[in-house]
Design brief:
26% of the residues lie in helices and 15% in strands. It is of the alpha+beta class and 527 residues long. Strands 1, 4, 5, 6, 7, 8, 9, 10, 11 and 12 form a 10-stranded antiparallel beta sheet that branches. A two-stranded antiparallel sheet has the order 2-3. The structure holds protoporphyrin IX containing FE. This is catalase.
Length: 527
């Protein structure tokens, strides 16, 4: 018998009654079923067992990177042009063609290294992942707020992330581990000069750029391709924080950027970004001092001007954080007709990794979840069953036929496009080699020289503070790199660590490192 007094039932009998997931009414949600008021409990307490065992499974694995984030929804509006030129000269992707054409989008912002509940004021790249729900299926543009990355080959991704994550023994994030790895990874210098400047702590998500970082392709109706890089520019401008600003913000709570986004969108103050695209012909560009497929490099804007192609507006926050933020799944393999991969060695690794982790993290049927479904395109597959399959994808006329080919009414292959063959013919020997034009320092140096004085001061201070906690050989190697990046940076960081150019003069280039003539010239003048 239910103890009515303990049920807390009030006069509001109009509210809906609680049930189990089986649809059975729950008459008592306060007391288990027991033999007598003092127990013992019985094992057939279906309601209790369902409730507690579901709770026991409430968490799914958090993302291995970018665990802390927030999603918002809105639309992308195309300009129908790349700058002043008709866009169909370069891509046949439908979402870009007509001026004013709108496509639904989801955008997830994130930090990279911390866990699900970590601080949003951390010095860390910020994720900027956009899902376009187009009529040709989904397109994901999975980017970051900094235009370059630490490494250029996907085989090094787990190493760079392990170095940045907490120590596996005592779970502390340690400068010594981070700079141990970076000091042996000269291609990381460009990223480090950005990350440890004020740009490394964006003020919030609304005042932040986004970059596709990797190189992609656009393909037109005739099958001709060009290389492209994507840039998102916030209408509100870019704002960043110093280490001190960030410490103050963090003292007030760990989730200021998510809060800021909810508040702005809730107040009807919808944030907006413009999408700009840089373009170059689809070849190796031997005239450049970098490889266009190297994601540690920017494409100089005077030679490859970013031109606007559309704008994105966010106007809705998730109705349920778990369903729409924890379970949303982006990937670099998710492209639509008219957009394509390049041979960028990071991109291929990323393209495997995203859906691989999502099949583990969310489950094999993650693409059936409403937030991930290609909601504006028909999805017809013969993929069936598996954990948590909650509907069957559209089948052909004959539901018995879940295979292809068939003459009895199943799905058939889509009409083969006339423009399938595209891009240059590539031949080569199977090998494991660095790209020839590594040129690890010059753009990092240019970035340093473009900084205002206060930004340089902040960068030097951040490097000195962290490197002061590192072993001497790591400090020396970092000063050596910084002298190659830009003399002033090397001298100033060295001064802070009491390491002079003479102290590092004897260091040899790293194993396999390629130096330019300019790098060698600089080394010859050390001390
Ligand atoms: C998330 C792998 C490089 C941007 C992730 C996730 C993995 C991953 C496994 C978790 C995905 C999930 O659980 O849903 C890799 C690998 C990389 C790489 C293997 C290099 C080889 C990059 C780069 C960028 C980037 C260069 C920036 C352009 C992101 C973003 C997310 C993410 C924004 C979060 C997506 C979300 O909000 O759900 N990455 N990543 N990643 N990655 Fe990467």
């Amino acid at each position: 018998m239910t103890d009515v007094a303990s049920r807390g039932s009030g006069p509001d009998d109009s509210r809906d009654g609680l049930t189990t997931r089986q649809g059975h009414p729950v008459y008592d949600n306060q007391n288990q079923r027991t033999v007598g008021a003092r127990g013992p409990a019985t094992l057939e307490n279906y309601h209790f067992l369902e409730k507690i065992s579901h709770f026991d499974r409430e968490r799914i694995p958090e993302r291995v990177v970018h665990a802390r984030g927030v999603t918002a929804f809105g639309h992308f509006e195309a300009y129908g042009k790349w700058g002043d030129e008709p866009i169909d000269r370069f891509t046949r992707a439908k979402l870009f063609q007509e001026a004013g054409k709108r496509t639904d989008v989801a955008l997830r912002f994130s930090t990279v290294i911390g866990g699900r509940d970590s601080s949003e004021a951390a010095r860390d790249p910020r994720g900027f992942a956009v899902k376009f729900y187009t009529e040709d299926g989904n397109w994901d543009l999975v980017g970051n707020n900094l235009g370059v990355f630490f490494i250029r080959d996907a085989v090094k991704f787990s190493d760079v992330i392990h170095a940045l994550k907490p120590d596996p023994v005592d779970f502390e994030q340690k400068p010594n581990r981070i700079f141990d790895f970076m000091s042996q990874t000269p291609e990381s210098m460009h990223m480090l000069v950005n990350l440890f400047s004020p740009r490394g702590i964006p003020a919030d998500y609304r005042h932040m750029q986004g970059f596709g970082v990797n190189t992609y392709k656009w393909v037109n109706e005739a099958g001709q391709s060009v290389l492209v890089k994507y840039h998102w520019m916030p209408k509100l401008g870019v704002r960043s924080m110093t280490e001190e600003d960030a410490a103050n913000v963090q003292a007030g709570g760990l989730g200021h950027a998510t809060k800021d986004l909810y508040a702005a969108i809730g107040a009807g103050d919808f944030p907006e970004w413009e999408l700009l695209v840089q373009m170059m012909s689809d070849d190796e560009h031997p005239e450049l001092d970098f490889d266009p497929l190297d994601d540690t490099k920017l494409w100089p804007e005077n030679e490859f001007p970013p031109r606007p192609v559309g704008r994105l507006v966010l106007d809705r926050m998730p109705e349920n954080f778990f369903a729409e933020n924890e379970q949303i799944a982006f990937g670099t393999g998710v492209l639509v007709d008219g957009l394509d991969f390049s041979d960028d060695k990071m991109l291929i690794g990323r393209t495997f990794s995203y859906s691989d982790t999502q099949r583990y993290r969310v489950g094999p049927n993650y693409l059936q979840l409403p937030v991930n479904q290609a909601r504006n395109a028909p999805v017809r597959t013969n993929q069936r069953d598996g954990q948590m399959a909650f509907h069957q994808d559209l089948a052909g006329q004959n539901p018995h036929v879940n295979y292809e080919p068939s003459i009895t009414g199943g799905l058939r292959e889509a009409q083969y496009p006339s423009h399938d063959e595209q891009g240059p013919v590539i031949t080569g020997r199977l090998t494991r080699k660095r790209i020839p034009r590594t040129n690890d320092y010059v753009q990092a140096g240019q970035r340093y020289l473009l900084m205002e004085q206060w930004e340089r001061d902040d960068l030097v201070k951040n490097f000195v503070d962290l490197l002061a906690q590192c072993d001497r050989p790591i400090q020396e190697r970092m000063v050596w790199h910084f002298l190659l990046v830009e003399n002033e940076l090397g001298l100033r960081v060295g001064e802070g660590l009491k390491i002079s150019p003479e102290d590092v003069r004897g260091l040899r280039p790293l194993n396999g490192q390629t130096l330019t003539d300019e790098d060698r010239e600089r080394l010859a003048h050390l001390g």
